Amino acid sequence: MFRSRANEKDKGGDGGMNREVSVPLVKTPDGKEFDPKAVQAQESKRRKRRIMKIAVYFMFGVISIGVFAIWLFHKDTVESLRFGSNFILTVKLRSLEIKNNEGDGVLYGDMGRKLLATPYDHCWDDKYESYEANCLYWRKMARLRVEKNDNSSSVCYTLMWEGLQPSFSVEDCFYLQHYHWYGYLNNMTSPWPISGVSLRNEEYYVEYPKEQTENLAPIWFGEQGVAVFVDSSFPFTVSWNETDKRQFCIMSTLEQRDENVPADLLQYTVCQSSSLKDVYTASQNHRQQVDTDFGFKRTHKSFLLPKPIHALSAKENLPELLLQLQRNESQCSLIELYDDWEEEFGDLSVDPIMVDKVDNLIKTAAAHQCYPILPISTFFSYKSKHFEEGINRTFFVQDHLNLVTKMVQWRGQEGAVLDVSNPHAAEWFLGHIRRLIVQLEVRALKLFHLNVPPDSTYHDSNMTYLDYTRIFYRDLASLNISLVLELATGFIPVPVYTPVRMSFYGEPGSSCLNTSIPYSLVLGMSGYSLLIADADRMALQSTTEEMFIRWLQLAIFFPVLEIPSIPLLKEKKMQKFLREVLTLRDVQLLPYLTQVWEEQPELPIIRPLWWLAPQDPQAAVINDQFLIGDRLLVAPVLCEGSGQRQVYLPQGLWKRHGMKPVRGPQTVEVLTKSFNVIPYFWYQEDGEN
């Protein structure tokens, strides 16, 4: 079947090693012959071509994947605004998700709900000729910037909306989900916790001619470890749970007047941490870093008063207080002078008719180490001594028509308001206050709240009416003197004495102080530690003997105690009761309050029950009890005619004076018919006596 040939050529005695050998041909069944070696060579070429083709395909695939990855990375930076793994803003949907360190979503939001579907991109930074990674730009509509401030245990994000056209308004809505939330909405809703509330477009900052009548601190806490707070001066409204989606919405109310100039519309911050306690600390730290313009530095130890403040509600009470001091029947650290100590608001001098009596009071009180609190405002009645000077020197805020005269009505008078953005006006005013401090030996200033009209114009064109209170506080803090607020507005980064409204509300068969503790808890978590149980309201209400006793049983636990000037205190029985509770405060409470303040000045003194029991669902909803520090639980009697009350004790061992320790969590009943019974419990470690 096959034939072989061999051609041999000898090459000069090489032993036959250099020879050509013919490869035998192979015949196929059909009689054709082929060379196997040639076939093998052709197959090798085809194999190499296949390998080259596969290599080219593979290289093309790698290049394609790289190009896709680059595109995907670029696309992701445009589609999402990311800060680590905790903050994700999906741009096309404008949805926000904030996660905890375990990767669980804890807050969801719909951002810029009124933003049209316009093209978007990163903002271009002309200064650095590059795109800003933390800024998104919706063409001809709006910009959103995000700043991050975090540490090892928590993170805060500040969101800043800027409008690029007058028709754009901001509205961001966050889903409340199933969590408990805490914070002030209005005086008709309980802030601790917020429940059963449907609130649509509630004006948080009350505008003129309405008056702010409550302490307003725009911060809301979620039990999942979230805080949302507005730390800017841009006007806004809030709505709460207005639909079945259970949303909390923040909306800007600032109008953009110049269509050619972008307007900063809304700025607020969201903090997230592992617990409510930690997110409180994160929000406090964030605001302290923002509030760098407050240069007020003073040791915190000097602020906790060893004796009460004595409040003069009217000039008619002055002779009685003077007699009490002379007879050693009263004690005080500070005396709050009556509001109308001037003949006209803006005189900045004592009413001539009362000069001698006020001087006598100040000298007598100083002998007992008691010094005045001077109530002041930046309101100048048009009848006051300094009104004309302020007009001539353009020291007053003007309205939209650039008029000053009689532009503001306050406490039944007409006049003008100091332009605190004008440095010359501020220094002029502070000069008068310095003179009064020296003349009257003043140790503290009580700052009256003014609602400045929203359409006011200022020396500083960038100022809004919501900056007013903050700048007023800042200027007075520079005097290195204690401050007492009439009403808290926003956040103040210095220690200030802050009264909490103590009003009785009618309940079936009695009157109750049922809003006092919730408001106190909100203010404490808002950064106001030196709370006072407000005594002014006691003088205004028809206070019965039992109501005053119940108020006093609550007030002695507050960091600062204020005693009102009311007719009831002229009675021997009430004077005896007052001495007893003051002894209790001096012996048991004040040493502990001082310890808490000195050791933990950055934390609230009055704390909610969940501070000790963050996982306890019952502690999360208690709003008629509170903690002082971590060791004292107070459950005051808040209503008239109450003979008993239920007290919830969280986990741990709790001891009441004269009784055996009780281990929580459990609810105990305390008989309170006797006015000598004040329900409070001390936390004890196991084995402690």
From TrEMBL:
Under SUPFAM superfamilies, the record lists:
(Trans)glycosidases, Glycosyl hydrolase domain
Disordered, as annotated region: 1-29
Positions of the Glycoside hydrolase family 31 TIM barrel domain: 513-593
Q: Name the residues that span the membrane.
A: 54-73
Query: Would you say which domain of life the source belongs to?
Result: Eukaryota
One Pfam family it belongs to: Glyco_hydro_31_2nd
The alphabetized UniProt keywords are:
Glycosidase, Hydrolase, Membrane, Transmembrane, Transmembrane helix
Q: What GO MF terms are annotated? A: hydrolase activity, acting on glycosyl bonds
Sequence ranges assigned to domain Glycosyl hydrolase family 31 C-terminal in this UniProt record: 603-681
Compositional bias annotation for Basic and acidic residues: 1-13
Q: Does the keyword section mention Transmembrane?
A: yes
InterPro entries xref list:
Alpha-glycosidase_related, GH, Glyco_hydro_31_C, Glyco_hydro_31_TIM, Glyco_hydro_b
The family annotation for this protein states:
Belongs to the glycosyl hydrolase 31 family.
- This protein is called Myogenesis-regulating glycosidase isoform X2
Species lineage: Eukaryota, Metazoa, Spiralia, Lophotrochozoa, Mollusca
As recorded in Swiss-Prot or TrEMBL, the protein's gene is named LOC101853313
